[in-house]
Amino acid sequence: MATKAVHLEAVSAYDTSAFLAAFRRFVSRRGPCRHLYSDRGTNFVGADAELRRMHSEGSGYYKSICAQLHDGHSTVWHFNPPSSPHFGGLWESGVKSVKYHLKRMVGDRSFTFEEFSTLLAQIEAILNSRPLTPLPDSFEPQNVLTPAHPLIGESSVVIAEPPLTEAKLSPSERWLQIQQITQEFWQRWCEEYLSTLQKRNKWLSSAKNFAVDDVVLVRDEILPCARWPLARVSAVHLGSDGLVRSVTVTTAKGSSKRPIVKLVQLVDHD
């Protein structure tokens, strides 16, 4: 199962030194990297050569420490074939979505490295908070696997802030501007993501019907960042064609009847 978890790092330049600094931060927080996949950007090719040089020219003590840290395995760098931008689509999709929305929200505004790093960290938490599948042997709808679970053992969170998307902020309120952009990103990206999950190929194939005990996402446009309203289907209601058109869902707050167009099924990966 591919979780498509993301780790976002801001860099000060598009060169080998900046990448190596970002790579060190990544390894320090996430642990040793056994395999690294990338395109053939000059900064990546240069970084690969630098890592090889450090390992080959290092002292015996340095190499022994590396062996212990990597459990006998150094980082293996895999480059995409030349002139093949379609390679790496799986891991590039999340970053592509981030860039798409950020460009439209940030515009020509400039931020300090600290401000932009904070913004990226909060966006990373949003992307890694999305529910993937119910956890085995769990009846509680909130017990779901997210991309953050393999990284930190639980779902990621974004500190709650009052709604700021419609607020008129002055240029001096830079910290609130970061939170405003984070909230706007959440609204745009969440709508795009849920619409992707609900894609329908009309008349070509039938989709899986909703069933009792399914865990579902309830679409809600006013939720705070990284909050995913989950519920469990307690009853299904058929239309005249014999297909499920609405269901009764149960949450900690009670039960309610919802049309299936306002719900998203979570796939149960066996």
How are the secondary structure elements laid out?
Elements: H1 16-30, E1 35-38, H2 42-57, H3 60-69, E2 76-79, H4 89-106, H5 113-127, E3 133-134, E4 144-145, H6 149-152, H7 174-197, E5 215-218, E6 230-238, E7 244-251, E8 254-259, E9 263-265
Parallel strand pairs: 1-2
Antiparallel strand pairs: 3-4, 5-6, 5-9, 6-7, 7-8
Organism: Trichogramma kaykai
Domain DUF5641: 173-266
Pfam families: DUF5641
Structure, described:
This protein has a five-stranded antiparallel β-sheet with strand order 8-7-6-5-9, with no helix packed on it. It has a two-stranded parallel sheet with strand order 1-2. The chain has 270 residues and is α+β, with helices and mostly antiparallel strands. The model has no long low-confidence stretch (mean pLDDT 81). The protein is 38% helix and 16% strand.
What characteristics describe this protein?
5-stranded antiparallel beta sheet, alpha+beta, RNaseH_sf, RNaseH-like_sf, DUF5641, two-stranded parallel sheet, 270 residues, DUF5641 domain-containing protein
Structure at a glance:
The chain is α+β, with helices and mostly antiparallel strands and 270 residues long.
Note poorly predicted spans.
Answer: none
Number of helices: 7
Mean of the pLDDT scores? 81
Given the helix and strand composition, which structural class is it? alpha+beta
- Give the termini separation: 10 Å
> Which strands sit side by side, in order, in the main sheet?
8-7-6-5-9
What's the β-strand tally? 9
Measured by DSSP, the beta-strand proportion falls in: 15-25%
- Helix percent reads 25-40%
Order of helices and strands: HEHHEHHEEHHEEEEE
Work out the radius of gyration: 22 Å
Question: Which sheet architecture does the biggest sheet show?
Answer: 5 strands, antiparallel
Anisotropy-based shape: globular
